[in-house]
Design brief:
The chain is an alpha/beta fold and about 300 residues long. The chain folds into three domains: about 130 residues, Periplasmic binding protein-like II (D-Maltodextrin-Binding Protein, domain 2, 3-Layer(aba) Sandwich); about 90 residues, 3-Layer(aba) Sandwich (D-Maltodextrin-Binding Protein, domain 2); about 70 residues, Alpha-Beta Plaits, CATH 3.30.70.120. Helices cover about 25% and strands about 30% of the residues. It has nine helices and 15 strands. The protein is globular, with a radius of gyration of 25 Å. The structure holds phosphoribosyl ATP and zinc ion (ZN).
Length: about 300
């Protein structure tokens, strides 16, 4: 069999991570032919193709070399890595970037009327979960022996059905817990979407493509939620203006044509730039204020 020379990335076919995963790759300059409901998307701008699969299959596909990279929840990735380790095997995939979307937490939740003071209260109880390895690691860290009931869906109704006393499940807003009269009591694992890569060295063109993609990804992630703030000001106002910007903004100042005194200031600000902050900047001496979205950065 000849070595593949196109890079392959697995992403979730349909689910919470599908759209944001493909959007992120498009922001990195990739574009794909074929409709997204097919299993395979051919990369047009670069020799990088997509495989659209169930999220649970992604770590295994990377490990087997079916694809080189994948975007998956850290919860799924860590659970499967835990399984491999328990079976005495080395995981052949690793997390290379946290992607900043798909964030949620794996939490323990108990029926609203059940008293709970700490992990010791879990001793001897039945906990329903789809993440037995992550839960077992938590129980082990706290030296508690409980029974883990593995369920592959509808975990939140297990206490009502009597199949478990409490649950350990993913929580984002907490709405599902509340709707099922459950109370979140412990955060077991924090998760978000990650880019996972094969641990095998990628040689030749595929290695170069992965490096290129990682560089572009870093550029996109670095300016995620960032704004470029531009303003004019008298040179004497610079300290007061800088004090109103976050310490990470590292403003650059250049002289403005005309007098010595007038300068233009430019700064990269992560997070929201509010109207109130703009008004404070104006009071500090700034004029011609502009707040611009940032799309890409190449350091
Ligand atoms: O078909 P496939 O196997 O690919 O998809 P899936 O059904 O296994 O996964 P999917 O699409 O539901 O989730 C994919 C990933 O999204 C998860 O593995 C997490 O990494 C991440 N994620 C982020 C979430 C949530 N937020 C989330 N809220 N996954 C699940 N939930 C559940 C939560 O458990 C609850 O039941 O969504 C429900 C709503 O949550 P609340 O707290 O907002 O009510
Ligand atoms: Zn799944």
């Amino acid at each position: 069999m000849t070595e593949r020379d196109r890079l392959r990335i697995a992403v979730q076919k349909s689910g919470r991570l599908s759209e944001p995963s493909i959007r992120l790759l498009e922001q990195c300059g990739l574009s794909f032919r074929q409709s997204r409901d097919k299993l395979f998307c051919y990369g047009e701008t670069l020799p990088v193709d997509l495989l659209l699969v169930r999220d649970d299959d992604i770590p295994g596909m990377i490990a087997e070399g079916v694809c080189d990279l994948g975007i998956v929840g850290r919860n799924v990735f860590a659970e499967q890595a835990g399984e491999l380790v328990a079976a005495g095997r080395e995981p052949a995939a690793e997390e290379v970037r946290a992607l900043g979307f798909g964030g949620c937490r794996l939490s323990i939740a108990v029926p609203q009327d059940m008293p709970y003071a700490g992990p010791a209260d879990l001793a001897g109880l039945r906990i329903a979960t789809s993440y037995p390895r992550l839960l077992a690691a938590f129980l082990e860290r706290h030296g508690v022996a409980a029974r883990i009931v593995v369920l592959n869906g509808s975990v939140e109704i297990a206490p009502k059905l009597g199949t478990a006393d409490l649950i350990c499940d993913l929580v984002s807003t907490g709405g599902t817990l509340a709707a099922n009269q459950l109370r979140e009591v412990e955060r077991v694992f924090e998760t978000e979407a990650i880019l996972a890569s094969t641990t095998r060295p990628l040689t030749g063109e595929r290695g170069e493509l992965r490096d290129l993609l990682l560089r572009r990804l870093d550029g996109v992630l670095a300016v995620k939620d960032a704004k470029l703030v531009m303003l004019h000001a008298p040179r004497a106002s610079i300290p007061a203006i800088t004090a109103l910007l976050p310490p990470t903004a590292r403003p650059s100042v250049s002289p403005l044509g005309g007098g010595d005194d007038a300068v233009q200031l430019q700064a990269l600000v992560v997070g929201a730039v509010t109207w109130q902050r703009l008004e404070e900047l104006k009071q500090a001496g700034a004029s011609s204020l502009l707040v611009l979205p940032v799309e890409k950065m190449l350091a």
